[in-house]
Amino acid sequence: MATWEPPADVAARVGELTDLELLHLVGGDGPALKGNLEMAKRYNATPIVAGRLPARGIAGIAFTDGPRGVVMGRSTAFPVPMARGAAFDPGLEEQIGDAIGVEARAQGADFFGGVCINLLRHPAWGRAQETYGEDSHLLGEMGAALVRGTQRHVMACIKHYACNSMENSRFWVDVRIDEADLRDLYLPHFRRCVDEGAASVMSAYNKVNGDWCGGHRHLLTEVLKDDWGFDGFVISDFTFGVRGSAQACLEAGLDVEMPFAWRVKRLGRAVRAGRLDRARLRDAAARLLHQQDRQARRGEPARYVSEAVASPEHRALAHRAAVDGTVLLQNDGLLPFDPAKVRSVAVVGKLAAIANTGDLGSSRVRAPEVVTLLDGLRVAAERHGITVEHHDGDDEDACAELAARCDAVVLAVGNTFRDEGEWVGKDGGDRTRLTLRPVDEALVWRVARVNACTAVVLYGGSAFVTEAWRTDVGAILMAWYPGMEGGRALADVLVGDEVPGGRLPCTWPADERDLPRFKRFARRIVYGPLHGYRKFEADGAHPAFPFGFGLSYTTIEWGEPEVAGGEARVTLSNTGDRPGVEVVQLYRSEALGTEPRALRTLRGFTKVRLAPGETVTAAVPLPDDGRSGALWLGASSDPADLVALDA
Ligand code: BGC
After folding, report:
1. pLDDT in tens, 491-507
2. d(CA 490, CA 504)
3. Residue 241 Cα, ligand 1 centroid: separation in angstroms?
4. Distance between CA 138 and CA 131 in Å, rounded?
5. Helix axes 312-325, 486-495, angle to 10 degrees
6. What is the 237 CA–ligand 1 centroid distance (Å)?
7. Confidence (pTM)
8. According to DSSP H, which parts of 453-531 are helical?
9. pLDDT, tens digit (0-9, with 9 covering 90-100), for 39-70
10. Is residue 620 a contact partner of residue 610, using CB atoms and an 8 Å limit?
11. Atom 5 of ligand 1, nearest CA residue
């Protein structure tokens, strides 16, 4: 058992609890069968409560899911985390966390289960949208920011611990991984969030090296609780997260079975017979009480009112996040639309006119309203005196005719919950293709052939392979799943009222064969030390769009970077006539895990905003982890964008 010592008053309160009460604390409160049926109808309509013991003054935990926002009620649907990862802005993420925390409390929850920080090993992962990208440092900083923001109001739970990055096989896959790769690549972001003070960790469904994560002594006790000194509680992933023996799971370090005490409620006899150590149950109880005590001391009750849910302020934040997460991948000068040349816009594609905020799984947020791209464009176009006509894309000839008679085309294509997401029925799951659907590719060709002024707006949770058509179009914007204000944000970017602020949080390959192996249905898979941009460097391969890449509407000139005072510094000047955004990225060449070669790895970043004509000095703190390696500073992971620093 882990060595954490609870505060004396917590230990004293736990000491008074009966066996029955101790067992009550380690599982969800609701009736399992009825509760599961209700969840199947409308998941998380109300908080999911666990470990409430009013007679002992123990409030328990009241769970709401995320991370797109609060899953309960009609809450603000923010852009998905992949879009927020693209914003490379922990300050903004902390504000989103603050808003989520307020909306959770306003609806009766005090425990947010939506800090998803699984590393995107391959862009086909169906739940890619729920995480912040392929890089451990980025995941750690963004996850920590969400923990900081939400934990002003609620307890935060980070998930899914660990190596949960395949959807279809998540209930049975055994991820085989060397300890060094686990520690250097797949766990540091969890540790970062634990160090930030996250109250809870959710174990994953899958196995790691032969053991189910929900009963994984090495991960839960040795690494998390002993090595990292975690003083919070571990919950299981829901319903099927306690596998094998429930007793063994508790003994291995699991603290609470969620969402119901389905397996743990049968443990009474084991406790009475002394087969299940009471000390372990007391430790679990103490962890819960300790975090509930912390929770009782936080908050701003005056803000927890129903009007706070999807309030104008939170919607404005969702709009900002969508603008800042939108990545301009390609632009031949078409964007932003020049009002002197673009008087009419053809909007083509079904996705322009539907609410497309992400999958329909446990992270689904039912926003009171979703502004579609078409809605947004109509409003923005009116401001600029542009006319807008829409075609859903079903009739290629009609689309071509419309495109030919307009000055420019906005073509909305990509994925929906049918193509990717948490597997909740016949839709979603891992992606079967990284390209667009063949019909969408055909539509791009057709439209671009008659009008070269075509801007493609892509929706999806991670990378696309765009080789078949990217050189045919004038501009490409990656919208991800941009939330309830996404349409307004994208329209503002298209007409130039806002500038796109995103950088890719995952590498976009030109050729899928440059990625690690992904199996949609796998009993076993080996996770090696190479994925993402480190793999591209190791293999000497070239992506279509590198990690960290994104264009802006202006030119930003870089001065000579230097290292001074524990920071890498560089002077940036916006030499254009529009506002600009730059993400200054610091990489260090490091051998990680079982990979002996020193490969560039993100170790710091800062986002800078520059008014036209403005010059600023950007500073990125050097890592202080005692490791050494060549340092690089630049605007993306592409070697051509990086300058070696003399440390
Ligand atoms: C998901 C978790 C989620 C839980 C609750 C699981 O299927 O993996 O992310 O929090 O369900 O619905």
Report:
1. 999 999 999 999 999 99
2. 17
3. 10
4. 10
5. 50
6. 6
7. 0.98
8. 486-495
9. 888 999 999 999 999 999 999 999 999 999 99
10. no
11. 238
